[in-house]
Structures are given as C-alpha cells and as structure tokens.
Amino acid sequence: MAVTLAKVLETAQGSVNETLKELTEAPLEEEDEGLATPENFWQELGNATQKIASEVAKLTLVLTQPPKPTVSIAQNIVNGVEAAWTTLLSSSRRSPPKGALLRKELRNAVLRIGEALATLLKALKEAENGSELQMTGRVWEACTAMEKVPRDNLAATRSLLAKEELLLTDALQEIEEELKCSRLSENDDVDNSANWTNQEKELLNPCVGLVRTARASIKKVGEAVRLKGHCRDSTGAEQLDRLAVAAEKLSPAVDTFVASIYPPMNKCSVSSTALAVVTVVREFLELARQCDVTGESDSEWLSFLLRAVDHNNNKVQPLLSPD
Fold first, then answer.
1. Which of 76, 219, 262, 284 is the most buried (most CB within 10 A)?
2. Does residue 148 have a pLDDT over 90?
3. Which cellular component appears as one GO term in the record (predicted)?
4. Nearby residues of 130 by Cβ (< 8 Å), 6 or more positions away
C-alpha cells in the first residue's frame, strides 16, 4: 500500500507524542559539570528552537499553498521538522543547568513546543480549514517563550517569588476591598444578610493581619534573595530550590484561607485554613533563616514576622473555639 501524506503526518505526530510522554515521565537530569558551558548551552538551545520555527514555517507553507507537494517532498520536509525536534531535545539534555527549579522551567518550555508541534501536525493531517496557520502561530509562540526562560536558578527563583508576591497582594486586596464594601453597605438601607455578623467581624482584623504577614514574608525574603542569592555552586542552587518549593505553598494556602473568611463563616474551616497559613509561612521564614540569603542583619525582621504570625493566629483561634 502506497504511503499517503496523511500517514506521513500521522507517523510524525505519533513520534513527537511518544517523546513528549518520555520527557514528562523522566526525572529531572542533574548537571554534568564536564559538558557545555552555560553560554554554549543556551546558544545551542536557541539555535535548535529557531530551527524548529523555521522548519515548521516551511512545512505549513508547502502543505497549505497550491500545488500540493508529492508525498516524497512532504516526507523530506517532515523529516526536517522531526530532526529539528530531536536536536532540541538533545540540546536541552546536554549539561542541564544548576537548580531543579530552572531545569523544571526548561523542561516545561520544551514540552510546550512539542505539544504545539504535535497539535500542528494533527491539524495539517486533518486539513482543518484555517487552523493550520493558527497552530503554526502557537509553535512560534512556544519557541519565542523559550527565549524568556531564566538563564540561571537565581533568576528563576526571583521570578517565582515575584509571582507569589503578586498573588498574595491580589488576595490581600481582595479581602480588604470586600471589607470596605461591607462597611459601606452597613451605612446604607440595604439587605445585610450576606455580611459578617458582629461576632465574625471580631475575626476580620487578625485574619487580614495573617494575610498581610504572609505577603510581607514573601516580599522580605524576595529582597534577601535579590541581594544575597546565588547559584555559583550546588549548595546555593539547592537552597534556592528549597525556598522556591516553600514559597509555592503560600498563595494556595492563603487563597483557601481567604475563601473561608467570606460570610457565612464556618468556624472549623477558618480555624483549619488559618493553621495551614501559619504552618507554611513559618516553614518559609524558618527556611530563609537557615539559608545563606539571610544573616545576622536579617534576624530582626525574621523574628518580627514570626511573632506576627503567632500574634494574629493567637487572636484568631480563641474566637473560633466552640461557644
């Protein structure tokens, strides 16, 4: 049976999907000190990414513009796309940079390119009207995003901490805005049945204080990382990794806590989610105290924030005890 163009594209799509599965399931590789320098690593990766974008453009142009190519010509172009994808995979695995966080971000960027490529091959196979160009654009976007991957673990950690700080700021602003609206409605002739009860209002200040402390913690540790963080050696990179893991627990815990504060309050839910926030904030601050990014000059603000966590929680929990 003669090989068809659809079969060529289907085979290529299957090959890309198989490598995506392997990449997803494989553990993050450790750095090999004896291989490429960081500069060469990123240059090779950039060249491989540009090659994919170029080969994809060629494939889409040939398959969407008349006249239709022969299967042989199409096969050669598809081979070029697959070769470019294989080169990208190989380049991304050659001397992976220091730091699990950075290696994770790099792998995710490669996965996004591969997923977009597989989707494009499927669209070309099915000759979906107009979607081929859209899917090509997605491959290009994924390739462009590779340029924005941080070049070392310090940059990756700083970026993550900045995102977490923004999320915590949003959560704080959300609950503060809700409080403001609630106070305004109290002065108007409106139905207040959806507002907090007087007993619940006693909880609001320490609850908001707990969220403010979480936000202040990520802000101060972020400043310390910016000033003293490094990934020159494995110890520095590993410390940044641990801080990143701890930081990522903050916004989910705070979001769940803030959601539990809304009326009508469930005391058990507020109590348990408050304790969860206390746990992750204390863990984050204690970890920062143990890392090289903080020293004796930072002990004052670390101790202050730890006391603030306990202070607000000690105000919240008694008010939640059974009547």
1. 284
2. yes
3. nucleus
4. none
Structure tokens at 220: 């101060």
Cα 104 from Cα 274, distance rounded (Å): 30
Task: Kindly tell me if the per-residue pLDDT of 175 is higher than 60.
Answer: yes
Q: What is the CATH number of domain 5-32+40-148?
A: 1.20.1420.10
Token reading at 26 = 């494989």
Q: 């490669």: which residue's tokens?
A: 110
pLDDT at 193 over 50: no
Task: Tell me phi and psi for residue 281, to 5 degrees.
Answer: -70, -45
CATH architecture of 153-183+192-320: Up-down Bundle (1.20)
Query: What stretch(es) of the chain map to CATH 1.20.1420.10?
Result: 5-32+40-148
Q: Which residues of 21-57 are buried (b: 16+ CB within 10 A; e: fewer)?
A: eeeeeeeeeebeeeeeeeeebbebbeebbebbbebbe
